[in-house]
Amino acid sequence: MTTTIEAAAARLRDAAAVDTAVVEGPRVLRRLPEGVEPRPYELFEVRPLGPLIGAEIHGVDLRDKISAELRAELNRALLEFKVVFFRDQAIDSDRQQEIGRMWGELETNPFIEQGDDAFIARFAKGAMPVSYENVWHTDVTWREAPALGAILRLVEVPPMGGDTMWADMAAAYDNLPARIKERIEGRTAVHDVIPGFARFLDEERLLEWQDRFPPVEHPVVRTHPETGRKTLFVNVSFTTRIVGLEKEESDEILRFLFQQAHVPEFQVRFPWREGSVAFWDNRATQHYAVNDYHPHPRVVERVAIVGDRPF
Predict the structure, then answer these.
(1) 2-305: what fold?
(2) Where does the TauD/TfdA-like domain lie (predicted)?
């Protein structure tokens, strides 16, 4: 097990340090699938935070009843912008869960501290390892059916810092060189719980949880179940190898693919304020919690929505 932990840590360091992903020239920045035209939103105002990913929703009070029509239009915004934000919302964890259940069954995460409810994952600086932050990842890809999405609410906001970033992995796929697309077409990759948690769980617990959640295979490029769009679906926290390739080639390609989340044109950065809520599509994004607020506290609560098996 020690060898496995050391290898996982080394792979994370290599992926962070080696930038093989420099592709110069203009980038294709499409919010919507090719051939799909944007439509106006009738029930709220949408304020994009950039040309590609992320938008604030104004004119919705999340305390109020969400009708079927409003839910459908919010879902359309989520699919278009990949992550949507709400300001000045006075909701509690019960309401947060109610909203999440409008998109599906909620899931628990056995590795994350729960709040007062099993479906609330609580991230509190000082009560959790620093390692949960400062890494690009997609949530729980070690599951056979990774989360559809998640709703995050700040309970305690630091006076500065503590932003969260998201990257559009559909745009990341669109901009891959043709030779890379050809090499990964139809391939699967192994996702393992060990790399993401080896740095702060003891070996006994790692073995216990790996028995419960053995490695799974997912497509390197998944098809979004609602939009039909191709999306790059590997991440440095949990993806260990591409099936059918020699280790050296698999490592090289994965390093390249991992770096796509680092491209600024694919990103949005959200500065939190009291009352802010974020809802993101976990099938189409990676995210990164910026740890730059020490020594101030930062407490967030998240609910995650059960997804389906990637295809």
Answers:
(1) Double-stranded beta-helix (3.60.130)
(2) 45-303
